[in-house]
Amino acid sequence: MSQYDVVVIGGGAAGLSAALVLSRARRKILVVDAGKPRNAPAAHMHGYLSRDGLPPGELLAFGRAEVRSYGGDIIEGAATELVPDGRSGFWVLLADGQRISARRLLVTTGLRDELPNVPGLRDRWARDVLHCPYCHGHEVRDRRLGVIGGSPGAVRYAQIVRQWTHDLIYFTPPDMLTATERSELVARTIGMVEGTIAQLVIDDDQLRGVQMDDGCVIPRDALFVPPRFVPNNHLLRGLGCAVDDGGWVAVDGTGRTSVSGVWAAGNLVDPRAQVITAAGTGSAAAIALNAELVDDDVRNAVRDINQGLAS
Q: Which residues form the FAD/NAD(P)-binding domain (predicted)?
């Protein structure tokens, strides 16, 4: 079985950026991509210099083509386990039974969004139920917006969303707002609706409003929801990589984890990284990976020469 210099697990912006840098460095690279990008429901991607407004799927298609043009390999599949090979490399086990050998690993499996349990919310995700105001706020500017609160930091999040509209409602369960939070919301003319949301009101495949449990409907054109971010860290935890209290993988400035030979990048490390930020962390990890592989190559070359002289 052939051995790859680096197997990249995750084919999003971070993984593909790393694969591009490494393949241009003439490394033998494989990207294993499960084909389930977090931003798949979004129609457009914003904030990525020179690619603003591009559909996310097109960015990934361009990235895959670029990696392949430099000789990198990409396969569709799900990695189920990462196993040290007993030397200095790893086995990557795939769901279809394949076993792939790698000198180094870069894991960019991202995160998943856990949304509040509101009927209809998930169905509208990335359409008119949104998470990132920097990604989507401009597109819904000056419209009737809402923020679903109740989670830590949600009031601060609403204050940020206020930047894009003068008509903002903050929805929160009763008795959660402090006196300071109330005064801050009032100061910036953010309305408050306290109660339990029964469902979203949808008409002609568009969000029309938020229905409370008392039957009252508050007209809204789009909602922002601060979701709970959950890292897809099971592969690295299985290897024994250190994580913080929130489950985010601990890395140094280059993306190196606590396990020798293993790097991580993108939303798996930084839940707030946008697409352009994730791509940058992938690129930085790739440069560090190649430098470590060069050190290996030097040691191996010196060893081979010494063994030849000894014989």
A: 4-279
Where residue 47 falls (left for φ over 0; alpha for ψ -120 to 50; beta otherwise) is left
Q: Which residue has the higher pLDDT, 114 or 1?
A: 114
Q: What is the pLDDT of residues 20-33, one digit of tens each?
A: 999 999 999 999 99
| Single-letter amino acid, residue 13 | A
CA angle 110, 116, 117 (to 5 degrees): 125
Hunting for tokens 């191996």 — which residue is that? 300
Domain co-membership, 35 together with 88: yes
Q: Which domain range does residue 167 map to?
A: 116-224
Burial level of 201, CB count in 10 A (0-12/13-18/19+)?
middle
Note whether 125 and 198 are same-domain residues.
yes
DSSP-derived secondary structure for 51-107: -TTB-HHHHHHHHHHHHHHTT-EEEE--EEEEEE-SSS-EEEEETTS-EEEEEEEEE
Of 198, 224, 250, the residue that ends a domain is 224
pLDDT of residue 124: 93
Using only C-alpha atoms, the chain has a radius of gyration, in whole angstroms, of 23
Given a cut of 90, whether residue 40 has pLDDT beyond it is no
The pLDDT of residue 41 is above 90: no
* Residue type present at position 20: L
Residue 192, pLDDT above cutoff 80:
yes
Q: Of 88, 149, 116, 79, which is closest to residue 300 (Cα–Cα)?
A: 88
- The CATH number assigned to the domain holding 255 equals 3.50.50.60
Q: Is the pTM of this model over 0.90?
A: yes
SS3 165: coil
Alpha-carbon distances of 267 from 85, 202, 252, 293, rounded to whole Å: 27, 31, 15, 25
